[in-house]
Amino acid sequence: MIDFFNATGPRLALDSTSVLDIGACVIGEVDLAPKRSIPDDGDPRIDHSLEGFLFTCGPDHIRQSESVEGRADGRQFPLHGSFSSHPARILSSTSGETPECHASVTVALADGGTALLDRRWRMDESGAVFLNDRVTNTGPTAFPPMLMYHMNIGAIVFDDKVRLSGDMLDGGGFPWTFGPGNGGVFCMPARVADKDWAEMVLGPIASIGGRSLRVRFRTDTLPFLQIWRNQTAPANVIGIEPASHRWEKRDQLAERGELIALQPGESIDYALSFAFIAAE
What we know:
The chain is mainly beta. The protein has one domain (2-277): Beta-galactosidase, Chain A, domain 5 (Distorted Sandwich), CATH 2.70.98.10.
């Protein structure tokens, strides 16, 4: 793990063994990562990544496993895509008031191709965290890129005053305990009016001094927002998930013309940022 922090922001653990995703996310003395309070999907490849604060799905598939198109051997896209468990090669890492970490990840895809993830983390003096990702098709054939960021928060630290807020949400927001019973999930378009970046807020969170988590992400390549929660014991987690594709099967997305091929040598960019902001 790479310790990534400054004097004002969260203390993050960047996991160089798995795509440089975020494990712990500590504010003061509170770690917001869900750790073992997550549902077990039964896939050891992604098990420890799901315990962290940010886990990346893709670059060839997101969500539950499905068959690889055009294969007669029954080959499957793995749960949440091929990224997880690929080690990151650290290209540079700096500390101080504006720390940065730059890495590359060579990814073996489920269809036999390859891709390269160029990943850059940085934190500004205010403590806001920025992620810029570029996925390049380094294989011999085209594939439709897909990506989703799972930001998983351990809901054990919440009280009933925590809300989800955002222009894309019904009525501008609602309590974090949406849905019937102990769980709920939805996926909706994230873009509002002519804005190039979407924004949503989760909070205030009393356990971290009344601060709220503000998430922003590019909507040209991440046009959807998925949010889910699960409080069915032993799970206790809420996920904020900017996504490249709506919540449908691959064949339905193909029929809509939304599985757009990335040709060999071509790249696509994704970006998000997050910050823990004080109440105004």
